[in-house]
Write a structure and sequence with these properties.
Number of helices: 29
Shape: elongated
Distance between the termini: 66 Å
Strand content: 5-15%
Number of strands: 11
């Protein structure tokens, strides 16, 4: 049936005068998919794929029916389902109060369906990332695999879903294949569970990326959406797999924090309903003590998934517990000399070839890699040739060699065969890793016409900063370089101290400046600013310690925004620990500030110690109640304005940072006046209520205005700097770490520059080093310099 379909597809395509590339472009399928269907290598085409091919060729009813019959999707003699009338009006969009997740395969989908939205966002993200990584430039390296050893594979009866009454032994599947067949290989495994094993740099992440793109290209609306998760950041002893998947999905797609009609977040609903196909990349990057509980947690679920790992780490975890239940396994193979000969000469710039030809004969076939490849073929037993052949057996090292020698005309790849410099494969690999950064920082990045000049970074300083980042990630045991966790490289006590000092300094300066501006005589602005700054630093620092530092946690970016007009649905009035801590913090700060004000007045009025203490305590109670009520009211009002981000919003590190900055600034613009207004009006109310109960209280409208203005500014700034992800980024990453020389002042620009140069990659809302080997190399070099 597959060969019949392939012949029919080829006949119809040629009748339409289309090439395989044109058909692939119009249908949205890959060229390898079209080629595989026509040659019979891809069997059992899906209905969705056949329909898209028929639409791309604009087939009539008879040809469409013939193609469906050839694919085995329509019985001969059975009428083809009628095509929709193009003149019929489309139904108008529904207006639910919140998006819903379809749970039945028969439910029709729409462009606004959260599942389909996610599929488009994931496809667009990883397509851009594949282009950034130059996977297809000039052509993909031939990543191949073979079926893994039986010891790393579950029983084939379980993988093939055989019934217990079947007596014939199950025959293992032959899963050997290459890069453009990964989706087909996965679909051939009935259990829907596949483990991809490969040594460091063998192309596991690129294979996972290609799997996602090919799977989405062939996906029907009933298929789950493949999403890549860097499993190295999962701690199975603290959070369940489904909860972690939900958190990661929400981090990279904040709009999916919105709730469905059942009160469940869209991300959670997608995970729980099986609409997500987890692609768990980097099992080997987990801490050694976590791999066994991780494998046990994976075995406790029935989720279809694809898992990547280095063989040794996976085998060690299997030896401690068991193989991944119902999972088949494949193992990536090394590149061959033929692969290198087909790939490396094509990566050399033509300008580099011309430069090389100036010193020799004008042979257009001359290539910088010719001498190296000839040496590897003719003298494979020599030490230099054997070492280089071993090193260039992985796509990672080939990519580094290409960057250093193909993209740089004055670097001769023949130096890789220097036996005096390189006595082992490790030395040769270290050479490539050491020279990668200086090479990429020599190139000037392209920039659009009229754009601001792109900043340049000294290679040695860049190495130092990248080494600190790699060391920071190693300390946190994570492959993710998240901007909101950069300050977590400091110890909790240090983070708390820096936060408290910075916050107190800012608030003290604001308080003193406002007091001086309204005409308060010296030295009152200095005394008041100092007192407010010290109290604010202590109070906000203590709040930060309780909420984050004591658990060694970072302040997470908000997945909400403030919206006053145009909300699609009312947001329920919420309360929680933020209101409680805010109220208690306001009470503590108010009591402390009032007590200090009372003592200052006591000194100014020159009253006795007993009377002065009574005045200070009364002022403490009054101010404490004022600030406690104002904080609680402000937090409740801000909560009422919160609404989830747009479901279409797929973030990258820069956009997530900017989104959080806008949210914090909006909170400042709304919260500061509100808090100040409540403090100013509440002061008069509290004084009237307590008048006579605590003695004779004196208050004036001017005092309310001054207190409200200063409190609004100071309270909003303190909250922003200590309890928001953007505020912590500002205090720790934009000020403290550059001040101590660990990072550049333009941190985000530096990270974006490293991404554009291929040192970092983007994985949703976070950066990662392009490979764990590069990260470990930089971290080790950084620690050696300390």
């Amino acid at each position: 049936m597959a060969s019949e379909f392939g012949g029919e597809l080829r006949r119809l395509r040629r009748e339409k005068g289309m090439t395989q590339e044109e058909l692939a472009e119009r249908s949205g399928a890959s060229v390898s998919t079209v080629r595989g269907l026509e040659t019979g290598k891809r069997s059992n085409p899906r209905l969705n794929t056949v329909e898209r091919l028929a639409d791309a060729m604009q087939l009539g009813p008879e040809d469409r029916e013939t193609l469906l019959i050839a694919a085995g999707l329509l019985d001969p003699g059975r009428p083809t389902p009628p095509e929709p009338d193009p003149a019929a009006p489309e139904p108008g969009p529904a207006a639910p109060t919140s998006p819903t997740v379809p749970t039945s395969p028969t439910v029709p989908t729409s462009p606004t369906d959260p599942v389909e939205q996610l599929a488009r966002l994931v496809a667009a993200r990883w397509q851009r990332e594949e282009e950034q990584r130059q996977v297809q430039d000039p052509s993909p390296l031939p990543v191949r695999w073979r079926t893994a050893p039986e010891a790393l594979t579950d029983h084939w009866d379980i993988i093939l879903r055989r019934r217990t009454r079947d007596t014939a032994p199950a025959r293992p599947l032959d899963l050997d294949g290459q890069l453009d067949q990964i989706t087909e290989t996965f679909r051939r495994v009935p259990s829907g569970r596949l483990v991809v094993l490969g040594r460091s740099g063998s192309g596991k992440t690129i294979l996972a990326l290609r799997f996602v793109l090919d799977h989405l290209a062939e996906r029907s609306h009933t298929d789950p959406v493949p999403v890549i998760f860097s499993i190295g950041g999962w701690n199975p002893t603290k959070i369940t797999l489904r909860d972690w998947l939900t958190a990661q999905l929400t981090r990279d797609h904040p709009g999916y924090a919105a709730q469905d009609p059942d009160g469940q977040s869209l991300a959670s609903a997608l995970v729980e309903s099986g609409r997500i196909l987890p692609v768990l990349d980097g099992f080997d990057e987990m801490a050694g003590g976590l791999r066994r509980p991780a494998l046990e947690a994976l075995n406790a679920t029935t989720l279809p998934l694809l898992l990547t790992s280095r063989p040794d780490e996976y085998a060690a975890a299997v030896a401690e517990t068991d193989v991944l239940t119902a999972a088949a396994a494949i193992e990536l193979t090394d590149l061959t000399l033929d692969d290198l000969a087909d790939y490396l000469p094509l990566t050399t710039r033509k300008t580099a070839r011309k430069t090389a030809l100036k010193a020799g004969p004008a042979d257009p076939a001359t290539n910088a890699w010719d001498a190296v490849l000839t040496e590897l073929r003719t003298q494979p037993q020599t030490l230099p040739a054997s070492l280089l052949t071993k090193v260039l057996a992985t796509p990672l090292m080939v990519a580094l060699a290409r960057t250093i020698y193909s993209d740089t005309p004055d670097h001769d790849p023949a130096s890789l065969l220097d036996a005096e410099r390189f006595g082992s494969a490790e030395e040769l690999e270290d050479h490539l890793l050491d020279n990668f950064l200086p090479t990429v920082y020599r190139h000037q990045l392209p920039q659009p016409p009229g754009a601001r000049p792109h900043p340049t970074f000294d290679p040695d300083r860049a190495r130092h900063w990248l080494g600190y980042l790699a060391h920071h990630m190693a300390r946190l045991d994570t492959p993710d370089l998240a901007w909101w966790r950069l300050g977590s490289g400091l110890r909790p006590a240090a983070r708390t101290l820096v936060t408290a000092v910075m916050t107190g300094l800012v608030i003290g300066l604001v308080d003193g400046a406002v007091s001086f501006a309204i005409g308060s005589p010296l030295p009152f602005p200095i005394v008041d600013g100092t007192a407010v700054g010290l109290l604010s630093g202590l109070m906000f620092g203590f709040g930060y310690w309780l909420m984050f530092a004591v658990k060694d946690m970072a302040v997470m970016p908000s997945v909400m925004r403030l919206r006053i007009r145009g909300r699609r649905a009312p947001i329920p009035w919420k309360s929680g620990h933020r209101h409680l801590i805010g109220g208690l913090g306001g009470l503590a700060f108010g009591f402390g500030y009032g007590f200090v004000v009372g003592m200052v007045n006591t000194f100014h009025w020159k009253v006795g110690y007993s009377a002065g203490l009574n005045i200070a305590l009364v002022d403490g109670v009054v101010y404490g109640l004022i600030f406690c009520g104002a904080a609680a009211i402000t937090f409740c009002f801000l909560d009422h304005l919160e609404t989830p981000l747009d479901i279409k919003s797929a973030v990258n590190p820069r956009s997530l940072l900017h989104t959080n900055r806008r949210t914090v600034i909006t909170q400042l613009l709304i919260g500061a006046p509100l808090f100040g207004l409540v403090v100013g009006l509440g002061a008069g109310v509290v004084v009237d209520l307590l008048q006579g109960h605590l003695g004779q209280l004196v208050w004036s409208p001017t005092a309310s205005l001054v207190l409200g203005t200063i409190s609004g500014l100071a309270g909003a700034l303190g909250y922003a700097l200590t309890l928001t992800a953007w505020g912590q980024w500002l205090v720790l990453t934009r000020i403290w770490l550059p001040l101590t020389g660990r990072l550049p002042w333009a941190v985000l620009t530096f990270l974006e520059d490293a991404y554009q140069r291929g040192i970092l990659r983007q994985a949703g809302a976070v950066y990662q080093f392009r490979h764990a080997r590069l990260q470990h190399h930089l971290a080790q070099a950084y620690r050696q310099r300390l």
